[in-house]
Design brief:
212 residues; mainly alpha; Arc Repressor Mutant, subunit A; Tetracycline Repressor, domain 2; 10 helices; 72% helix; elongated
Length: 212
């Protein structure tokens, strides 16, 4: 996608950009999408608002850059939450339990940021950004799926690849609703703890993968 901000050439400018992007992510987590304003981000980064506008065309450009930078940093981390090395893979049961726990932690630890990301992707008009952002999320699920397919011989569903992705997306959707929505039928009818929900989702996913 075409960049809608200036790429810094000098080390000092690169450090300033890094502070701005970090401050934006922190503001999104703390204050939400509406509360993340350029003056607030600039103050947190220790620069004037005019300095932000010299680098970014508008607020949306700043948010796009911050979200993509956060995704890229996550990908670059060795042993990410969905890497095989991060999940106990001695059995299908342990792999499923580890992945459900990893997905759950992502939503528990960064609810504000993930809520802001979803709202922004839903409304942003930059199709290239939306495609790239969704691509990062899709890659995470595909990595998780690769972990489970290491146990293909233990998966009795007639279509293991589809079953793995369907099951993981179901788990992710349920955890997303519980973590990011204040009102839902999950809260109303099944107000159980995070640990209990993880156990139920693990049991449910294992049962589905082992369905004939």
């Amino acid at each position: 996608m075409k960049r809608d901000f200036l790429v810094p050439q000098q080390d000092r400018s690169r450090k300033t950009l890094a502070r701005l992007l970090d401050a934006t992510i922190a503001a999104l987590e703390r204050d939400g999408l509406k509360g993340t304003t350029i003056p607030r981000v600039a103050a947190a980064a220790g620069v004037a608002s005019a300095s932000v506008y010299r680098r970014f065309r508008d607020r949306a450009a700043l948010l796009r850059a911050a979200f993509l930078n956060a995704f890229e940093q996550s990908v670059q981390l060795e042993g990410g939450p969905f890497e095989p090395a991060s999940i106990s893979t001695r059995s299908l049961d342990e792999a499923v339990s580890g992945l459900v726990g990893a997905i759950s932690r992502q939503y528990r630890e960064h609810p504000g940021l993930l809520r802001a990301l979803i709202r922004f992707v839903e409304t942003d008009t930059d199709e290239a950004f939306r495609k790239k952002a969704l691509g990062y999320v899709a890659d995470s699920f595909l990595k998780a799926g690769d972990v489970l397919l290491m146990f293909r011989n233990r998966i009795t569903h007639t279509n293991p690849e589809r079953a793995v992705l369907f099951g993981l997306l179901t788990v992710g959707t349920i955890l997303e609703v519980r973590a990011l929505e204040d009102v839902s039928m999950w809260h109303e009818l099944l107000p159980i703890s995070d640990e209990e929900m993880e156990a139920e989702l693990t049991r449910s996913l294992l049962g589905y993968l082992r369905a004939a």
